[in-house]
Amino acid sequence: MKKKTRRDFIKISAIGVGGLALANPVLDWVPSFLPKEKTPIDESKAERTPTICEVCFWNCAAFAYKGADGKVQKIIGNDSDLHSTGRLCPRGTGGVGMLYDKDRLKKPLMRVGAPGSQTFKEVSWDEALDYVAKKTKEVGEKYGYESIALLDHGTTAHHFEHLFKSFGSDNTAEPAIAQCLGAREAGFINTYGAGIGSPEPTDLRNSKCLVLIGSHIGENMHNGIVQDMSIGIDRGMTVITVDPRFSTAASKSKYWLPIKPATDLALLLAWMHVLIYEDLYDKKYVEQYTYGFDDLKNHVKKYTPEWAFTKTDIAPDLIRKTAREMANASPAVAIHPGRHTAWYGDDTQRTRAIAILNALLGSWGKKGGYYFPEKIHVPHYPTPHYPEPKWTWKDITKDKYKGAFTGVTNILIDASLPDTKLKHKIKAWYITATNLIQSIPDQEKTKKAIQNMEFIVVVDTMPSEITGYADVVLPECTYLERYDYLRTTRHKEPQIALRMPAVKPMYESKPGWWIAREIGLRLGLEKYYPWKDLEEVLDWQLKQVGTSLEEMKKIGVKTFDREEALFLEDGEEYFFNTNTGKIELYSTDLDAMGYDPMPVFKEHPQPEDGFYRLIYGRVPMHTFGRTINNRFLNDLRSENHLWVNPKVAKLLYLEPGQEVWLRNQDGVVSSYPVKVRITERIRFDSVYLPHGFGNKAKQMKTAYGKGAADWELITKVLIDDVTGGTGMRSNFVEILTDNPNNEEVKA
Ligand SMILES: Nc1nc2c(c(=O)[nH]1)N[C@H]1C(S)=C(S)[C@@H](COP(=O)(O)OP(=O)(O)OC[C@H]3O[C@@H](n4cnc5c(=O)[nH]c(N)nc54)[C@H](O)[C@@H]3O)O[C@H]1N2
Ligand SMILES: Nc1nc2c(c(=O)[nH]1)N[C@H]1C(S)=C(S)[C@@H](COP(=O)(O)OP(=O)(O)OC[C@H]3O[C@@H](n4cnc5c(=O)[nH]c(N)nc54)[C@H](O)[C@@H]3O)O[C@H]1N2
Ligand code: SF4
Ligand SMILES: [Mo]
């Protein structure tokens, strides 16, 4: 086989900008509305300001460079930054397109027509904020401030979380947990007493073997992980990819295991069986650090590779061979924890199986496996204690979803329904930087809840679908026009990073911190806002950790010393934050809560004749639907395709590029057609539709109507019994060749 080089793998590794420019002349660093000088700006002379990319939640630190005309010309990764190591991914590079998007929200808007009609009038900030404060007070006084929920994502969330806590609500939730990584965190917390967090602390640069279960790194363009994986491959790391689709990662793998969807837990249990019964596990590590090994050994006895073959379609030989490959590399082996793990409902148990496998291989806390990340504690600006809410999301989840560790979006939506049986009810929503229509499954339910709200305010940068359901829309400026709180994420070395405005907010847009504060002041919460602006807060905070705003404006990223070692020494004593102080192969907490203490395989429905499982994922050039209107990125990829196996194409007489529609098991039909891509790279029982396309917001002129939406077709949801998160890979579709729609498409 040809040796893989880093450049071969993906373009991130070829100094972002140049690689992209060569690959596509459209994105050659001069935004198309600016004069097309072919000579790039001189970085040594251009004014630069530190920023943190908000195009996705890897949050790479970078510098924004301005041209002589004062406009941002390019964004380049900050060399000191561990998230990016100085290189941005194509999306971050194209972030300028978000700033100069002509379709941006420009002024505060207030609803004129019925919800969903998108008829708004432009109003002044005073009018909009007065109204938001008035409605907040009205609902708060009538039902209690707890009845107001904050649904959020991204950096803006922090400003609104402070506002919410100040007025007495802790009912905050984000799709980036319950629809994303919530199950994974619960799986690891119940094994190691610690979650994974972001960035994932895998030491792929030094791994000898990487196992990807569905994680499609390379299409999932999370910068640091992609770079680490490239370096690992260059150094000879073996990759094992388990995916019903031949992903980019699969194409770089020694083993591709095209698993039957929804059966991963069977494979994971069979791998444990092989490691234990072939005596391949790390005995010293297991003995010293784990609890419940004998229980596990008995538990996985029946889960033989032969048994797993009947569930997964993966040959017993291949299961054994891959298990041995992992054991050979141990402890420099990482079974990647995944990120979007809301798949089939038993997601906490599946990710726990991943956690257990890592323990059997002795990789947690070991070079080439998982490192111990560290962060620096930056104190909060002193404000008085928040009032104690009378109830929180926990009062809703504590009986049924005992492993939920944050607010659960879909449960707060359940509490917002007119016919909810829940004791605690939600009456109004603040929505910041999340497009619930695209990100929460069963959108009819979301819309029903929306209709029942007394009041909805949306803070966004774009007129995306969700803004159409607001009573008030508040235009936030983009990340390139604002300060935010410091990035203090955990990494190999503790770092802080600064985002500051590269340019002044365009139009009448305002930063999130300003919007939240103005609402707070109108609610009489001055004591929680003893500062004039965020600069004052940041400077105070930075001085507490021995630097200043002035210094950070120059360097953008500051690195601190670690306090503890990155890895465990051989035989070192270590206490895990679990009941037993050990890595719990047998989870005492899950047991006490009434859940399976060790993962048990359960069958999930498979598609009936004529139906295919709808699976989805990412395209490298976009982040969900949030970048589709970005002209640079849209030029690179304007629509998605439906991946269909040749056998299916033959059966249905499909031609490459033919437009089709999809109808799911509940009769829901896709609004827009999608072009077929016929490829052996997908199993015959599934179709693949990348997420984020099929935009229905007319005001987003570049994105509108391009490609098809997975999110319309996800009506059947399998709830994770531990965390309450929504498994969304549970939908089956038929492929229609005639247009079934004759009505106008509505958001
Ligand atoms: N069907 C389906 N559903 C999914 C997924 C899927 O693959 N398929 N993925 C799931 C996953 S993994 C996740 S993490 C979630 C993510 O789901 P979301 O949180 O909804 O996604 P985002 O793209 O972060 O949020 C999009 C909104 O943020 C706005 N926005 C962008 N930048 C800013 C800003 O700086 N300020 C403000 N105020 N607004 C901004 C955009 O205009 C847009 O309206 O979706 C989940 N849901
Ligand atoms: N370019 C880009 N990168 C992104 C994002 C983005 O929007 N754009 N979003 C970021 C976010 S928030 C997240 S959470 C991550 C998500 O990215 P990941 O956590 O890497 O991946 P998933 O979305 O869970 O899974 C997608 C893969 O799972 C496969 N798959 C489907 N069903 C099964 C199954 O039953 N078993 C197995 N083994 N595989 C299956 C699909 O074929 C696909 O390759 O990506 C992050 N990176
Ligand atoms: S991975 Fe890409 S889009 Fe995400 S923060 Fe980094 S540069 Fe931005
Ligand atoms: Mo996510």
Describe this structure in words.
The chain is of the alpha/beta class. Among the domains are: 22-99, N-terminal domain of TfIIb (Single Sheet); 180-373 and 579-593, Dimethylsulfoxide Reductase, domain 2, CATH 3.40.228.10; 612-746, Beta Barrel (Barwin-like endoglucanases), CATH 2.40.40.20. Strands 5-4-15-14-13-6-7 form a seven-stranded mixed β-sheet. Strands 20-22-21-26-19-23 form a six-stranded mixed β-sheet. It has a four-stranded parallel β-sheet with strand order 10-9-8-12. β24 (718-719) and β25 (726-727) form a beta hairpin. It starts with 5 loop residues before the first helix and ends in an 11-residue tail after the last strand. One ligand MGD binds at residues 54, 153-154, 156, 175-176, 179-180, 340, 432-435, 438-439, 459-462, 464, 466, 476, 478-479, 616, 623-624, 626, 691, 710-711, 714, 728.
CATH superfamily of one domain: Dimethylsulfoxide Reductase, domain 2
- Overall, the morphology is globular
Question: How large, in whole angstroms, is the Cα Rg?
Answer: 25 Å
- In quaternary terms, these chains amount to single chain
Identify the CATH architecture of one domain: 3-Layer(aba) Sandwich
- The chain-level mean pLDDT equals 93
* Helical residues, percent: 25-40%
* Number of strand segments: 26
Strand order, main sheet: write it out: 5-4-15-14-13-6-7
Ligands (ions, cofactors included): ligand MGD, iron/sulfur cluster, molybdenum atom
Number of helices: 25
Strand content: 5-15%
Distance between the termini: 48 Å
Would you identify the regions where 5 or more consecutive residues have pLDDT less than 50? 1-8, 11-39
Largest sheet: 7 strands, mixed
Given helix and strand content, the structural type is alpha/beta
CATH topology of one domain: Dimethylsulfoxide Reductase, domain 2
Name of the top-level CATH class of one domain: Alpha Beta
